[in-house]
Amino acid sequence: MPDVFPAPQGTCLAFDFGEKRIGVAQGSAEVGIAHPLSTVSAEANETKFAAIAALIREWQPDYLVVGLPVHSDGTEHELTRLARKFGRRLHARFALPVYWADERLTSLYAESLLAEARVFGKKQKTMLDSVAAQAILHGFFHGGAAEYWDGEETQEG
Fold it and tell me: How far is CA 44 from the centre of its chain?
């Protein structure tokens, strides 16, 4: 089981992992502010990771945060396993520390924020994942704790 640590200092990129789309946000723990960057969508994993590599080169993060989708009671499911696998791949490719943050209700929160900004329909769909990543990162900065993975193999492989 990963250890639980307070959110680290420095800049980071956060990811709202999905099998089809990955929302990305950037932020700084020192000021506790996050903003949406983009949504990565492609069929091939190599294309997705190439887009992520470009964002990492551009933003030079100190660490990465991956949202963990879980049931409302906190139990894990198949998408949780896939998000953890994605985080391990990020660590292996970019040699950056990876933290996992609870992402319960972040998509609903993102929809609410976009509706409040009067962003609807197709435009909302294109922005939803990156705003959800922003919500994940905001919660990570202000939540006080997150799971840290130190690069060692876990039982889910």
Answer: 19
**What is the fold of 3-149?**
Nucleotidyltransferase; domain 5 (3.30.420)
Residues 54/40/73/151 CA torsion (nearest 10 deg): -30
Q: What average pLDDT does the segment 45-62 reach?
A: 96
Report the side by side order of strands in the sheet with 33-41: 3-5, 146-149, 98-102, 63-68, 11-16, 21-28, 33-41
Question: Cα-atom radius of gyration of the chain, to the nearest Å?
Answer: 14
- Residue 100 parent element (H or E): strand 98-102
Decide: 97 and 148 in contact? Cβ < 8 Å: yes
What is the 8-class DSSP label of residue 118? T
Q: How far apart are CA 42 and CA 22, in angstroms?
A: 9
Structural domain boundaries in the chain:
3-149
Minimum mean pLDDT among 25-34, 113-122, 130-139: which range?
113-122
Q: Phi then psi for 144, rounded to 5 degrees? A: 85, -15
